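Q: Given only this backbone (236 positions), what sequence would you predict?
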């Protein structure tokens, strides 16, 4: 049985207190000397534990008279990046396949489109409009960026911030422009543009059933290219 290093044990204890809400955002952690006294560990071990918690975006450390280590305010983007990294590692290791990836995308995006149609506000529609691209003239960087921005805007229109966090890794995996360009046939981006505009229209009209059907069709249509793209990721 492998025994975890002492700094990991301490970091895990503090992490549990943060995740459970026992330590609240903005709350100051005990000082390093206090943590040493409480845990019986050396100062270097305590500092390593704090560095680990900081790398996980769970605490922030400041210097000065009023400095110290504080429980971090939740940052959806940082959390999403962490989740994206985890999904990427699973894909690279082969523990998750491209088909698994697409199955989850279908499970999420279809109901998300329906919720967006039911709940969208004018500013959500504006964000979706900003994510439109010109398939004939925009370069691959703009197309990949706009593709992700559109689907994240649809998720935001549900009004559920957790959905935005959960779907973010689905588009982070498609950020490899070379892989996307190689996997997508010439007509791919014309189809994506057309289907995004149709979905935007259904969401604007508040047509829940139509939005869900269009989302399902869109995923089915891009499925072959997405399989090739995700499968082209390192290790995929």
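A: Predicted residues:
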């Amino acid at each position: 049985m492998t025994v975890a290093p002492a700094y990991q044990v301490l970091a895990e204890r503090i992490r549990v207190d943060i995740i459970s809400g026992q330590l609240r955002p903005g709350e100051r952690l005990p000082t390093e000397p206090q943590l040493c006294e409480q845990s019986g560990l050396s100062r270097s071990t305590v500092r390593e534990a704090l560095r680990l918690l900081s790398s996980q975006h769970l605490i922030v450390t400041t210097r000065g008279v009023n400095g110290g280590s504080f429980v971090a305010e939740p940052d959806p983007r940082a959390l999403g990046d962490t989740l994206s990294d985890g999904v990427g590692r699973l894909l690279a290791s082969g523990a998750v396949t491209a088909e698994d990836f697409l199955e989850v995308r279908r499970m999420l995006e279809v109901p998300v489109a329906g919720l967006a149609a039911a709940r969208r506000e004018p500013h959500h529609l504006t964000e979706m409009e900003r994510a439109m691209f010109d398939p004939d003239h925009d370069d691959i960087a703009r197309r990949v960026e706009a593709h992700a921005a559109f689907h994240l805007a649809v998720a935001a229109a549900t009004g559920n911030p957790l959905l935005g966090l959960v779907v973010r890794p689905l588009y982070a995996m498609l950020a490899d422009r070379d892989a996307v360009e190689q996997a997508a046939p010439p007509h791919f981006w014309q189809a994506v543009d057309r289907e995004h505009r149709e979905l935007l229209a259904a969401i604007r009209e508040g047509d829940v059933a139509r939005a869900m059907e269009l989302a399902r069709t869109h995923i089915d249509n891009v499925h072959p290219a997405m399989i090739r793209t995700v499968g082209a990721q390192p290790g995929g």
